Amino acid sequence: MSQRKVLLAGATGLVGGEILQALLVDPTVAEVHVLARRALNMTHAKLRPHVVDFKQLPALPQVDEVYLALGTTIRVAGSQEAFRAVDFDANLAVAKAAIASGARRIGLVSAADANARAAVFYLKVKGELEEALASLNLSALVIARPSLLLGNREALNQPSRLGEKLATPILKLLTPVLPKRYRPIQARSVAHALLATLPTASGKVTLHYEHLLHTGHSR
């Protein structure tokens, strides 16, 4: 796996930011191609930034792995349609464009209880994306399904998420009695679990709380 070339979409988010930092210090990674709507405020010898329109992606560079971490909230996006344009359309567009350039391994940041037939719109969209990716020509699809993500959004200049702000202290107190799939987890653990699993995975692999926590901490 020496001199791997990797593509990342969503590098400015909690999990995406952790994925980016880990890739940049990984000695087996030669190039990190980052797709973003705006220029990144950083430079690195391995970093290859690409400012793109996710509705009209150019031909993408050939890479060994793709990490999809694009995401928003309905509150930030402004409508269900705008939310879907990011969480479903943009992620799927990147996946298809990367596959057209030869990629066969994709890692996705999804959500606990994602289900294409869910009554909750957020979970429905997440589930539909999982199913759409599973139908593509891939040798490996690794899906991380965290619940509430813990991390410093302010440090990333992201707007605070009211639901997370209100729920975090309560869920932390309830963690010992919560079903494991609903327990809060550090974004870093999710990122590291994806990075540890995707390079050697085969077929579809879904990472739930316990696997995310154990693999993320042991990496």
Level-1 CATH class name: Alpha Beta
CATH level 4 superfamily: NAD(P)-binding Rossmann-like Domain
What is the helical fraction, as a range of percent?
25-40%
CATH T-level fold name: Rossmann fold
Structural class assignment: alpha/beta
Number of domains: 1
* CA radius of gyration: 16 Å
Structure annotation, total helices = 7
Q: Sketch the major β-sheet.
A: 7 strands, parallel
Distance between the termini: 16 Å
Overall mean pLDDT stands at: 89
Instruction: State the low-pLDDT regions, or none.
Output: none
Q: Work out the number of β strands.
A: 9
Beta-strand content bin: 15-25%
H/E topology pattern: EHEEEHHEHEEHEHEH
Give me the CATH architecture, please. Answer: 3-Layer(aba) Sandwich
What is the topology, as strand order, of the major beta sheet? Answer: 3-2-1-4-5-6-9
Question: What is the 3D shape?
Answer: globular
